[in-house]
Design brief:
disordered C terminus; mainly alpha; elongated
Length: 152
């Protein structure tokens, strides 16, 4: 039951992490820093490079969310455990580092000189990715997690 709830919590946690400030960037120490979230970074990326924006949108938003939904369907026996290999593939595509690299590129091009500070959203986004990996790891091929199976 724990893995089911933990995985379902990602359906709320991911969107919160996407809107939370990942970084605060500014040109000079005297001025207020601009907050950059996953979504605001993607908005900037859409203006700079559409192809990269499409890739990042898929890898940072769509793939992790589809993976979470797929695992939930398997946990609640609404989908066949045969979907687990496809979900595993989706998890491999859901690479947060691709998004972060693209975000750093946008920041480097846009800001150039200045200062950067990490925001709480970076930790929230990282936690979501780690929890998602944990839920995937704890889900057995039969479609139930190790913890769930012991409670059935």
């Amino acid at each position: 039951m724990f893995i089911r709830l933990l995985n379902l919590s990602l359906l709320v946690a991911f969107p919160v992490a996407w809107t939370a400030p990942l970084l605060k960037a500014g040109l000079l120490p005297f001025f207020k820093l601009s907050e950059i979230s996953v979504l605001s970074g993607l908005q900037t990326l859409w203006q700079k490079d559409v192809i990269l924006a499409l890739a990042v949108t898929f890898f940072a938003l769509v793939a992790p969310y589809l993976k979470t939904i797929g695992l939930a369907l398997i946990h609640f026996r609404l989908a066949s455990p045969k979907l687990l290999p496809a979900i595993t593939l989706m998890g491999k595509l859901a690479m947060a580092d691709i998004f972060l690299i693209a975000l750093y590129i946008v920041i480097a091009k846009g800001v150039g000189v200045g200062r950067l500070e990490t925001g709480w959203g970076l930790y929230a986004f990282t936690a979501c990715v780690l929890v998602s990996l944990y839920c995937s790891f704890m889900t057995k091929p039969e479609g139930t997690s190790k913890h769930v199976k012991s409670q059935l």
